[in-house]
Amino acid sequence: MEALVRFSIFLGVFAVMAMWEVWYPRRALVYTKAQRWLTNLALTALDTVVVRVTMGATAVSVALFAQQHGWGVLPLLHLPYWGTIVLSLVVLDFAIYLQHVGFHAVPLLWRLHIVHHADLDVDVTTGLRFHPLEILLSMLYKAVLVLFLGTPPSAVLLFEVLLNAASQFNHSNVRLPAIVERVLRQMVITPDLHRIHHSVVAAETKANFGFSVPFWDHLCGTYRDQPSHSYATMTLGVPAYRDPRRLGLGRLLLLPFILRQGRRSDEEAADAERRGLEIPRVVSPRSQQCRIPLRVLLMLGLGGGMAVAWLLVRDRLTVAHIEPWVQQLGWWAPALYLALWLVIPPLCLPGTPLGLAAGALFGPLWGSVYTLVGATAGATLAFGMARYLAGAWVAQRVSGGLQRILQGVEAQGWHFVVFVRLVPLFPFNLLNYALGLTPIRLRVYVVASCLGMVPGTVAYVYLGYAGHEALTGDADLIRKGMLALGFLVAVALIPAMLKRWHRWPRLTKAVHLCPCRSEEIRTDA
After folding, report:
1. What is the pTM of this model?
2. For the segment 273-313, what is each residue's pLDDT rounded down to a tens digit?
3. According to DSSP H, which parts of 413-517 are helical?
4. 416: alpha, beta or left, given left = phi > 0 and alpha = psi -120 to 50?
């Protein structure tokens, strides 16, 4: 029923905007509509199929799940129903604004979002044109938000309908009367306002990120009222991709993986000089204007959300409450745990709490197995991202430490990888990315990483298990506590032991090549 409602409203809005574009167009189209519409609508259909096949659920389904299990912050506030709906819409809309900023600010995400911006004209179908991977990430992002907030299913359905309708409206090539435009843009994102965001001028691409209301752009300093050129003559799209023959469906699907970093043709440069335009490099269009809201607001939002969540659910974060919940989930519990590991290493978040939690929830054996599998999978994902998607960006972040890592791998091969995994004090998450730039083979990296992480994994998992036993008042607590302490001491002594282990000189030499000096590794994002 939910899908039928959304599809019916989608078709109605699409038909209205398409006819409006024919009767009262804002701009003359640069390229033929037939080819663009065929590509954009085919991409939209593919997005729908990919979501149904992979995730199989919408944000509304996630909201129903959260409601059935009593999850989320909003139910704990005990607001009236209408207040919960309004607050949900406000928070979700701001979250989508931050998501949009993030897809411009993070190079890996920009590679996906560039498919949307590469449209040479902007009309109602542009609002539906997104790479399937971007759609999946957006769905996952909204699902996590809905679970955290405990948003009512009706609010999620309303938000999804409004977001889809707003996207079609503000991307459409329609003309509004001047007085209507002046009044309307004070309350909603109009097509003219959002068209500025699709300009080839870098400063304009970094503005007007809102999808429905302009308040977030005003608040975060990303609002721009007028383009540098007139609405009728401004150039839209991405400077490096102006040939419509290279923007078919197949090419768009491959575009994130073959993105030309910072290249432009002589013709593009001459055109830029003639028209006085700044042609940006085809990388993440970041600036202080874009990065400040992203960092500050994400930190404030994350910190505030964690503080609110802690105050509201701290009474439930006990062994007595968590264990029955995990048992109720059944096999979903380890599946969700493994899914977290696919997110933690790529985002450079600490994984130690997960290892401790695994020991408490799954026991020392299965906790170690789940953690080892999850950590290896997350490390491999980060390795692949660095090798195939974001090599230049990773090289900038690891700075001088990269050369030492390259020397270590070239000199010691898989022994070097084993060593840096054996010593958990090394920056685990950055090494995942840095090792992706080395010539080591993927399968060798996976096996060596898995072997090297075994001691540290067992130690932290068993420590979590011992902590759980302490909370439950186990009679054999002293023995288990001593074992946990012994594991940690053994892991801490590994570097010294390897230095004295002359039977394996490769690892002894690797000690001196390991990038353990923190000043050589930049962690700024």
Report:
1. 0.62
2. 444 444 444 334 444 444 445 555 556 666 666 565 555 55
3. 414-422, 428-435, 442-472, 477-500, 505-513
4. alpha
Nearest CA among 70, 89, 240, 101 for reference residue 155:
89
Higher pLDDT, 178 or 425: 178
Class of residue 219 by CB neighbours under 10 A (exposed 0-12, middle 13-18, buried 19+): middle
Phi/psi of residue 343, nearest 5 degrees: -105, -40
71-104 pLDDT, tens digit per residue, is 888 887 888 999 999 999 999 999 999 899 889 8
What are the residues whose beta carbons fall under 8 Å from the beta carbon of 294, sequence distance 6 or more?
98, 101, 102, 105
Q: Phi/psi zone of residue 89: left (φ > 0), alpha (ψ -120 to 50 degrees), beta?
A: alpha
Start-to-end C-alpha separation, the chain: 43
Question: What is the rounded CA–CA span in Å between residue 211 and residue 130?
Answer: 14
pLDDT-derived band of residue 520, with 50, 70 and 90 as boundaries? Answer: very low
With beta carbons less than 8 A apart as the criterion, state whether 217 and 207 touch: yes
Q: Which residue has the higher pLDDT, 423 or 28?
A: 28
**CB-count exposure of residue 233 (10 Å: 0-12, 13-18, 19+):** exposed
Residue 232 burial (C-beta neighbours within 10 Å; 0-12, 13-18, 19+): exposed
428 close to 516: Cβ distance less than 8 angstroms: no
Mean pLDDT of all residues in 35-39: 91
Q: In whole angstroms, give the CA distance from residue 38 to residue 49.
A: 17
Question: Hey, what are 504's tokens?
Answer: 């394996």
Say how far apart CA 41 and CA 13 lie, in whole Å: 15
Give the Cα separation of 393 and 472 in Å (integer): 47
Q: Give the Cα separation of 450 and 438 in Å (integer).
A: 18
- Residue holding tokens 């663009």? 36
